[in-house]
Design goal:
- This protein has 164 residues and is α+β, with helices and mostly antiparallel strands.
- It has one domain: Chitinase A, domain 3 (Roll).
- Helix content is 25%, strand content 29%.
- The protein is built from three helices and six strands.
- The chain has a six-stranded antiparallel sheet.
- A hairpin with a 4-residue loop joins strand 3 (72-81) and strand 4 (86-96).
- The radius of gyration is 22 Å and the shape is globular.
């Protein structure tokens, strides 16, 4: 009987010592939004906040057709962290729109493309939940967990069901 009490007491101590850390999405969303607002103010960036939480500005408009999530897009882009560190840059990169971060899936369909230069350009600031979230990304320049991402994207063209 003493053994059972001792074992039970030990289990209680072990479980109470374990700290359960849980991700608080609303709190992180507020942290991200505060960071974005400070970044926008400090850098005098003119953007609009979408109801999804992304901040964007169509820098160079294009009156062509708009891609959908079912399309494959060709883009040139630069991605950086809010501290100015460039973590990725690609020239004429082709990828399925359904396979990118949610922020891109929401923003790229706002862009038009007639396939001619100058291409539609968007400035896009993505809160962490619509980027890589709480998962850090490796690479030549690592992206820390819960990072807000700042992209400049040129839509060169798109291919697929909605191509006209």
């Amino acid at each position: 009987m003493k053994r059972q009490f001792l074992l039970f007491g030990l289990l209680i101590i072990l479980f109470s010592a374990c700290k359960k850390t849980s991700f608080n999405a609303p709190k992180q969303a507020q942290i991200d939004d505060d960071k974005i607002k400070a970044y926008i103010a400090a850098n005098h960036i003119d953007v609009t906040k979408d109801p999804s939480g992304i901040y964007y500005k169509i820098v160079t408009p294009d009156t062509g057709a708009h891609p959908t999530l079912a399309d494959t897009v060709q883009v040139t882009y630069t991605g950086k962290l809010l501290n100015g560190t460039v973590f990725d840059t690609e020239n004429a990169f082709i990828l399925p729109l359904s396979g990118v971060v949610k922020g891109w899936q929401l923003a790229i369909p706002l862009m038009g493309s007639d396939g001619k230069a100058p291409y539609c350009r968007i400035r896009l600031i993505i809160p962490s939940a619509l980027g890589y979230g709480a998962v850090a990304q490796g690479g030549n320049v690592p992206i820390p967990a819960n990072s807000v991402l700042d992209f400049t994207i040129d839509l060169i063209g798109f291919y697929g069901p909605s191509l006209h």
